Amino acid sequence: MLLDKHGRKVNYLRLAVTDRCNLRCFYCMPEEGINWLGRKELMTYEEMLHISAVLLKMGVEKIRITGGEPFVRKDFMSFLTSLSKLQGLQELTMTTNGVLTAPFVPALKKIGVRSINLSLDTLDRNRFFAITRRDELPRVLETMEALLQHGIAVKLNAVVMEGKNTEDILPLVELTRDLPISVRFIEEMPFNGEGNHYANLTWDHFRILDAIREKFPEIKKVPDPPFSTSYNYQIPGHKGNVGVIAAYTRSFCGTCNRIRLTPQGALQTCLYGDSVLNVRDLMRSGLDEEGLGAAVAKAVWEKEKDGWEAEKKQSVQSRLNASMATIGG
Questions:
Q1: Mean pLDDT within 209-233
Q2: Which residues touch 231 (CB under 8 Å, ≥6 apart)?
Q3: Residues 287-320: tens digit of each pLDDT
Q4: Does residue 68 have a cis peptide bond before it, meaning omega lies within 30 degrees of 0?
Q5: Which CATH superfamily is domain 2-327 in?
Q6: pLDDT per residue as tens digits for the range 98-123
């Protein structure tokens, strides 16, 4: 069992399979992209399967695949199929931008993927292009439709940004009227690979909810699932629901049950902290499974209490270079 010194059980792994992406969302990376990792720097699929198997034996039950964009990595579905067969895995899911995903939806259903997080910040094609620097909204919507048709639960993740997409909050909420989806609004976070950290957050989770409540005063709070990062709400008569994630405010840290592995094998016990261990290097050094598990357990034990504590310890260089594409969101 993976435990930290605050008594929290860690049973959720976010595994980033690549830092590469086919979009250039301004809040994630510069327009020209970032310095992509070389092939030898990335964990191989075999290494990812090995560390995943070790962690599953230690109590991890859920694995979320992230990136970058997972589907830009060659042979990704073959890897995902192998991962789905590992003993002890209770839930396999992923976060995708949806641009390349639609053709693979039947295969995802077949291997037991029951839910997908789909990144979608706007329903307006022009604003989508302005935010992502790519004209791919129709393909993302095609993926959403395919997921719903195949009975895969959809969570739409929308980052709320001053002057960029606040007018999309209500149209996105309107989707929940007739579609059984969860629309989750996320506070903007300071990870764009350009060293821009925001001194003030103008659209925090309180303001987002107030904007929704102004149009839908009947919106009601519903119970949050265990370890939920979102505050969840239901509008009477709507098939779907709404969530608000205090990603920058970090009010959900107290129940954190997750760890992250970057594409190069760096273990992060907090999104806002530095990496604490490189499992790729340990595996390539020949460390056996027992030793690997012990090293991870020791690192997890030292997990910070919350994101504010982790950020205080973060190095200046990490803070400047941080990009969601390199740390797995």
A1: 93
A2: 205, 209, 221, 224, 243, 244, 245, 246
A3: 999 999 999 999 999 998 877 677 777 664 554 4
A4: yes
A5: Aldolase class I (3.20.20.70)
A6: 999 999 999 999 999 999 999 999 99
